[in-house]
Amino acid sequence: xxxxxxxxxxxxxxxxxxxxxxxxxxxxxxxxxxxxxxxxxxxxxxxxxxxxxxxxxxxxxxxxxxxxxxxxxxxxxxxxxxxxxxxxxxxxxxxxxxxxxxxxxxxxxxxxxxxxxxxxxxxxxxxxxxxxxxxxxxxxxxxxxxxxxxxxxxxxxxxxxxxxxxxxxxxxxxxxxxxxxxxxxxxxxxxxxxxxxxxxxxxxxxxxxxxxxxxxxxxxxxxxxxxxxxxxxx
Length: 234
What we know:
Low-confidence stretches: none
Strand content: 15-25%
Number of strands: 10
Structural class: alpha/beta
Strand order of the largest sheet: 4-1-5-9-6-10
Largest sheet: 6 strands, mixed
Distance between the termini: 40 Å
Number of helices: 6
Oligomer: single chain
Shape: globular
Mean pLDDT: 94
Helix content: 25-40%
Radius of gyration: 19 Å
């Protein structure tokens, strides 16, 4: 079983300009994800997919391989992550370098507890699922059994399709949302189904203390606060 890690990092961030190489508590944002990848014992190859020579140089300085520069049409803010993964996987397939599984680590989620990516892999293998995603627990007030959608007549219907509302939070089933930190999936999901997820999805819950997905300037400020709590900065 050969596992490829793809770290995607384009240059054109609008919410936080230049965020991938912007210093966060003393080091470029992207280096937190490099460190999490290097720490993982399951990965056979770790690569950066970027369109930017400056980001590429930062990766090389951290001993992360940059086998290509991503084409510009895969570098704007509308480019689907699926297409970025397909581009990288096809690059290796065309060279006869075959991978069974792909791990996607996004730099916008810089903080992962020690060994978390390894635990994700262990869960992925044990579950025999097509895909694993890291998740966070959805607060009960946003549980889909308590969320409504408007119908064509303007009436509210329970989003899950049930007729009766579950009366108390204690009776609600746990609900999870992807947190963007870790994705692991069979490479054949991409080759054969044009999908990251496949048919079966397992999960591992992230520690809320570590989670942030940086998209805005406010997110960056919160990331700085989290970093101060988690790490001793010299």
